[in-house]
Amino acid sequence: MRTGSEPATARSALRARFWLSVWGLVWAIFGTAAFALAGRPGWAAACGVLWLVATIDMAMILRHIRQGPHYQPGPDIPPYRPPDGGPPSPGPPRHRHP
């Protein structure tokens, strides 16, 4: 259910993002070194920029993890307000044939 408050109540799996950031950082470092040794300065620079972006992203993720549960609400906190009246009941069974 969408309520329109998703930007304010969005949650993110920060530890999964951290490990994906580590994976990207390792490949960016490897790419920078490999292209520099192969004599491809343009590709080495591109990988270096990616290395910088991954490092900044990892720093922001670690900052949010260290800030605690304010940025990581538990599974008991829904990302939306529950609808009034609870879940709909299935009602009586319907027959397909008249």
TrEMBL record:
<keyword id="KW-0812">Transmembrane</keyword>
<keyword id="KW-1133">Transmembrane helix</keyword>
<feature type="transmembrane region" description="Helical">
    <location>
        <begin position="43"/>
        <end position="62"/>
    </location>
</feature>
<feature type="compositionally biased region" description="Pro residues">
    <location>
        <begin position="75"/>
        <end position="92"/>
    </location>
</feature>
<keyword id="KW-0472">Membrane</keyword>
<dbReference type="InterPro" id="IPR045924">
    <property type="entry name" value="DUF6343"/>
</dbReference>
<protein>
    <submittedName>
        <fullName>Uncharacterized protein</fullName>
    </submittedName>
</protein>
<feature type="region of interest" description="Disordered">
    <location>
        <begin position="70"/>
        <end position="98"/>
    </location>
</feature>
<feature type="transmembrane region" description="Helical">
    <location>
        <begin position="18"/>
        <end position="37"/>
    </location>
</feature>
<dbReference type="Pfam" id="PF19870">
    <property type="entry name" value="DUF6343"/>
</dbReference>
